[in-house]
Amino acid sequence: MHIHFIGICGTAMGNGALMMRALGHTITGSDDNIYPPMSDLLKEQGIEIGAGFDRAHLLPKPELVIIGNAMSRGNAEVEATLADRIPFASLPELLKREVIQGRESIVVAGTHGKSTTSSLIAWVFEVGGLSPNFLIGGVPENFGQGYKVDRSSKFVILEGDEYDTAFFDKRSKFLHYLPTTLIINNIEFDHADIFPTLDDIKTAFRRATLLVPENGVIIANGDDANVQEILQNAPAPVETFGLSSTCYWHATNVRYDKEHTTFSVTRDGKQEASLSLGLLGEFSVRNALAVIAAARRHGIGYDKIEGAFNSFKSIKRRMEFKGEFGGVKIYDDFAHHPTAIKETLKAVRQKFPHERIIAIFEPRSNTTRRNIFQHELATCFAQADVVFISQIARLNLLQPEERLDPELVMREIKAQGAEAYYLPDPQSIANKVAEVAKAGDVIIVMSNGGFGGIHTMLRDALI
Asked: Residue 338: is the preceding peptide bond cis (ω within 30°)?
């Protein structure tokens, strides 16, 4: 079948397209925001990407069009799909039909940590000999791609996004994923363009719990009050995880060094194992506990879990080392919510306790572009010595009274004792970084997009 993806370079859409190609379908796609790593992965697999959106990209006529959730009416290809009566669907619908139905579906949901936790579960299951299918909104370095297809496997692992499905289906994506095991890492306010309030987000997660069968399980963060609230009257068994002794899966003896986190695993009050993971921070401990709970449920022993943890290589754009230039190390991270920024910088500080940390942030998500976290953004940079914030992405699409005020954030950061700079574009930031950076400094770039190619600009400015 010829399937055309409108918005193919999004991480989920791109990996979904690659998955469908692996299943034997002919794939084409288009996007107006084509950048690595997804664009490179698609091209390597011979998938043609049309630049921009044009009716001509639908010639020859595909048998099915997948419309990305960033697309809306008025898009030339969406209009052509509707006018020419071409069958269409959302990516979650496609996955449900082609991959999920009939399999054990392990869905990883939550505001933070979905990609990393999904990647770690996929690797643990792989090392454990279960050869899972998976689709992850990123590129796990152990696999080199964000998807895997194994027709013989009864397992599928999915990153469960609470964002809406498509302009014609406003339900959260994860409501299509038929979870038999549902992991809920945490719940915070996010996606301000979709959810008016935190209560609306909780409702979406509560609906996800209603899909888990009686012989399934909900593995949930026992340290998160919002998660615990939505689990009231859950119809499936619940296993909690966390750092608190009341959790069913409980981490003790947590220790950090520059490269690893080590902890003991207690299950229902009984210590079962001591493990080490090459990821840093409390978030990583909780992510690991959720993975252990899912793995043990499906019969994977601690020897296999330990082997997978020791060989896990994380995921691209999650504390990804980009290189050292002029004596300055550059890391890249997907963090874009204040909590994620805070936890990422805590992990950077654990890795580099004595170095000067330069944080560079692009307010690009639909939440951080708005003034919802105006004051929280200032406090989340506490571990950084120097902070740069760029102009808000797609500034013209927000009313002035809605917008984040980066200059106010700068003033508040300076009041806390750090250097802070508000500069409009990536090149201006790179030029200023070259002025203030010193050999031995560590730069962490945080954005949920390409940030205008800032990593290359930083490299060129520093060497």
From this structure: no
